UniProtKB/TrEMBL annotation:
Name used for this protein in its record: Thiamine transport system ATP-binding protein
Domain ABC transporter: 2-230
SUPFAM superfamilies, sorted: P-loop containing nucleoside triphosphate hydrolases
Provenance organism: Yoonia tamlensis
InterPro entries for the chain: AAA+_ATPase, ABC_SmlMolc_Importer, ABC_transporter-like_ATP-bd, ABC_transporter-like_CS, P-loop_NTPase
Gene3D superfamilies per the UniProt record, alphabetical: P-loop containing nucleotide triphosphate hydrolases
PANTHER family linked: SPERMIDINE/PUTRESCINE IMPORT ATP-BINDING PROTEIN POTA, THIAMINE IMPORT ATP-BINDING PROTEIN THIQ
This protein's record includes keyword Nucleotide-binding: yes
Key words of the record: ATP-binding, Cell inner membrane, Cell membrane, Membrane, Nucleotide-binding, Translocase, Transport
GO molecular function terms noted in the UniProt entry: ATP binding; ATP hydrolysis activity
Ranges that cross the membrane: none
Pfam families: ABC_tran
Length: 231
C-alpha cells in the first residue's frame, strides 16, 4: 500500500492536497483536466518535488525523506525514457546497475527481458533505430529489470497509435500488475483506465480524490469527472 498522508504540494499559485491510499499490486489511473496536477502529484511520490506538508508512506515506511534513487520506484515519462547515445542493451542494463559495464550474466538477463517484450536481437541498436512502439517496449524492459515494486507512468504511451498503445497497456497489466507491482498511471483517455485500471483517482479542483473502482466510477461519475468527460 502506498499512502499519502495530509500531503500538500505547492508551486507559486498552484496547490494540491492528497489524502489517499493506493492498493498494492493494483493499477490505479489518475485522470483529470490539464493543469490539475497529475504530473505534480507523481513528481512528489517519486521524490522530485518536496511537499509543503505531509508524508508519503510505502509498505508502512515513511519514504518522504528519501531521494528519488533511494525510493522503491520506477518511472516512465512521455519522452526521454532512453538515452539516445546508448545502445538498447546499455539503456535496459541501467535497470540492473548504474554503470554501463555488464557481466555476461547481466547481458543474458538483458537479452532475456528484451526477448520477452518482443525486441529479440535489437540490443545493439541505438534508440533512434527503433520505432516509437519499440522504444516504448525498451523503456518498459528497463522497468521490468529494475524490479522496483512501485511503477509510475506519466502517459508514456500517449504518442503511440491506438493499437500500439493498447498493446503497451496490456503489457503493463501482464508484466507489471499481474506480477504484483503497484502501478499508478496518468491518462487523459478514459478508455485507457477502463482497459487496465482497477481503480481511478480523479485529480481536479486542487485535490487528488481517493481511488474508486473503475467501473463504478464511470457508471456514476462525480461532478469533476463528469465535467471532464463533457457529460
Ligand atoms: N516547475 C513548476 N513551477 C511552477 N509551476 C509549475 C511547475 N510545474 C507545474 N506547474 C504548475 O502546476 C500545475 C499542475 O501542473 P501539472 O503538470 O502537474 O498538471 P497535469 O494535470 O499533469 O497537466 P497535463 O494533463 O496538462 O499534463 C499547473 O498549473 C502548472 O502550471
Amino acid at each position: 500500500m502506498l499512502r499519502c498522508e495530509k500531503l500538500q504540494l505547492r508551486y507559486d499559485d498552484f496547490s494540491l492536497a492528497a489524502e489517499l491510499g493506493f492498493a498494492a499490486g493494483r493499477i490505479t489511473a489518475l485522470i483529470g483536466p490539464s493543469g490539475a496536477g497529475k504530473s505534480t502529484f507523481l513528481a512528489a511520490i517519486a521524490g522530485f518535488l518536496v511537499p509543503a506538508k505531509g508524508r508519503v508512506i510505502w509498505a508502512a515506511q515513511d519514504i518522504s525523506a528519501l531521494s528519488p534513487a533511494e525510493r522503491p520506484i520506477s518511472i516512465l515519462f512521455q519522452d526521454n525514457n532512453l538515452f539516445p547515445h546508448l545502445t538498447i542493451t546499455q539503456n535496459v542494463g541501467l535497470g540492473l546497475r548504474s554503470g554501463l559495464r555488464l557481466t555476461a550474466d547481466q547481458r543474458a538477463q538483458v537479452a532475456a527481458v528484451l526477448d520477452s517484450v518482443g525486441l529479440a536481437g535489437m540490443g545493439a541498436r541505438k534508440p533512434a533505430a527503433l520505432s516509437g512502439g519499440q522504444q516504448s517496449r525498451a523503456a518498459l524492459a528497463r522497468v521490468l529489470l529494475a524490479d522496483r515494486p512501485l511503477v509510475l507512468l506519466d502517459e508514456p504511451f500517449a504518442a503511440l497509435g491506438p493499437r500500439l498503445k493498447d498493446e503497451m497497456l496490456d503489457l503493463v497489466q501482464q508484466r507489471l500488475a499481474d506480477q504484483g507491482r503497484t502501478v499508478i498511471m496518468v491518462t487523459h483517455d478514459p478508455a485507457d483506465a477502463k482497459r487496465i485500471a482497477d481503480a481511478v483517482a480523479v485529480v481536479a479542483d486542487g485535490t487528488v480524490a481517493a481511488p474508486v473502482a473503475t467501473r463504478a466510477l464511470f457508471e456514476n461519475p462525480p461532478p469533476a469527472l463528469a465535467r471532464y468527460l463533457g457529460k
